[in-house]
Amino acid sequence: MINRARAALRGLAMGDAFGGTWFRRRFAVDNLRPGPWRWTDDTAMAIVLLSVLEEHGTVDQDALAAGFARAYAEDPHRHYGAGMHDVLAALGQGEPWPEVTRRQFDGEGSWGNGAAMRVAPLGAFFADDPDQVPIEAVRSAQVTHAHPEAAAGAVAVALAAALNVTGGLDLSAIADRVDGTEVARGLRRVAALDTDPRKVAAMVGCGRRMSAPDTVPFALWCAARHPADLEAALWATASAGGDVDTTCAITGGVVGARTGVDALPAQWLAAAEPVS
Ligand code: 8NA
Ligand code: MG
Ligand code: MG
Ligand code: MG
């Protein structure tokens, strides 16, 4: 499954770089923009997560915390979430991750979409061991995000990537695995919809709050609509606007786990910053 995980990472990075070309533009996801397309924090953190899996075979949380902090120190200008600057600087000082993450946002912990945005390669990595996927996804979230909705978003995205590798991406089944959360409620609202992505975004959001619940159901709906066509999936995702680098990173990771990126137009492959 390591090749599927790397395919997911390339799809994620492509989505992040493609979507990021509309970063901070409120309207008009329009024609393809000229390159180079740089990826952002979504990809920086996904690279670290996959390297920890390759080295340890599991989410070693201390190694993950150290890896996130190192990547941040090396390149802090990748548009990290506002809370992550404190978190990653504190982890870099050697503060224990459980204390750092629990004190975020007045002790509530972050419900940001940052745990979900990076996790699709993990789902592909464990695709042949489905019971392990949620366990590892939660562990990967906890290092930066203490709120249960952030973990639910990560579990949902990882399961989607695992299911798409095996050919059965089913939003209702994913909702059942994160039952009782806002993420599950959003997934159930959109699971059966057959409509324009912008209408789906109007119902459950497309990341304008940068929360897991207002990001993950929309991105997974787009992936489930185009599970084997990365280009179509990314255009559908971007068309709604919002947190486009992140919605496209999620869709790109989930669809890319199945397709890889080689079928994309040569222009896209030339424009996007590579992942080594
Ligand atoms: P985070 O933990 O900072 O969460 C993201 C944001 O969600 C926070 O900055 C807060 O505004 C809000 N938030 C999270 N938890 C709470 C809470 N408990 N109470 C109140 N507000 C809360 O970082 P993250 O890693 O989860 O964020 C990922 C996002 O940031 C991604 O979109 C990523 O690309 C990046 N980013 C996005 C944009 C954008 O405009 N779309 C800009 C900069 C960074
Ligand atoms: Mg980003
Ligand atoms: Mg984060
Ligand atoms: Mg973003």
Automatic annotation (TrEMBL):
Protein's name according to its UniProt entry? ADP-ribosylglycohydrolase
The protein's required cofactors: Mg(2+)
Question: What species is given as this protein's source?
Answer: Paractinoplanes atraurantiacus
Has keyword Transferase? no
Annotated residues for binding of Mg(2+): 40-42, 243, 245-246
* Pfam families given in the database record: ADP_ribosyl_GH (PF03747)
Q: Which InterPro entries match?
A: ADP-ribosylglycohydrolase, Ribosyl_crysJ1, Ribosyl_crysJ1_sf
Does the keyword Cytoplasm feature in the UniProt annotation?
no
User: Which keywords does this chain's UniProt record carry?
Assistant: Hydrolase, Magnesium, Metal-binding
Looking up Gene3D superfamilies in the UniProt record yields: ADP-ribosylation/Crystallin J1
Any one Gene Ontology molecular-function term assigned to this protein's record: hydrolase activity
Q: Report the cofactor remark.
A: Binds 2 magnesium ions per subunit.
